[in-house]
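Recall that a protein's primary structure is simply its ordered list of amino acids. Everything else, from secondary elements to tertiary packing, is in principle encoded there. The following example makes that idea concrete.
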Amino acid sequence: MAFAFNSITTNNAGAGSGSVSHTTAGLNPILFAAIGSTFPYRTLSYLRWDGDDFTIIKTLSWMDNDLDFGMHFGVFVAPGVKTANVTYALTGGCRSGHTAWSYTGAAQANALGVIKFNLGSGTSPSLTMENSAGQLIVDSLMSSWALAGVGTHSAGANQTNRGGVFVQEGDNRIRFRQSGGDEIAASPDVAMTWTINASRPYGHAAVPINPPPTGTRGYVVMSKMRDFMNDLKGGLVPPNELHNRYRGLKEQGLLTI
């Protein structure tokens, strides 16, 4: 099963904690989240999916016009298929916002490759991911706009900007933008590039995601089909639900005729 983007949800929390509902779906899902914060920068107390902790890929912090900014980037491997809350808390009051986005087609164990990151300033953030052919590269970019404009992020060639959050302080002088993106690597070395519409300080992190091992999909298919047939045999599926069960298996790529 190929990698596929599922959905993105965002929340401009405006405080030192937040929650956003997200729905994972499909076969072999994986979930990402990014938190941006400013004025003042705070360390992360927790980032959780339905009460369980994310793996933090990278935390980056920097100064912009004597104001501090930070980004926390996390992943949850094998989150299951459900609707639940992505929640976080920072160590004190600040301005913050967060993004959650998910995919299907990812390894459910040993999913992560070598993480890359960079702190810089300018208009062209870029990270080169080596030996990544066939992997899904997922990245998070955050730029700070202290005493500056609004700012935009444009994804590079062959890369998709999935969206994110824009957060500003009450006096409109302290702002940041966070964006999540991805690319399926078609060659061994892939550059994850962005264009910021003006030269600004930024933090950028990326991680490659492995596909499931060969044969994984077959085991999942047989397991799902066995459960389905057992329900039928035991009379646990009313006739009016058969169509919905069949359609659900087809949509997950677990049943074809």
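The radius of gyration is 20 Å. The CA atoms of residues 88 and 192 lie 27 Å apart.
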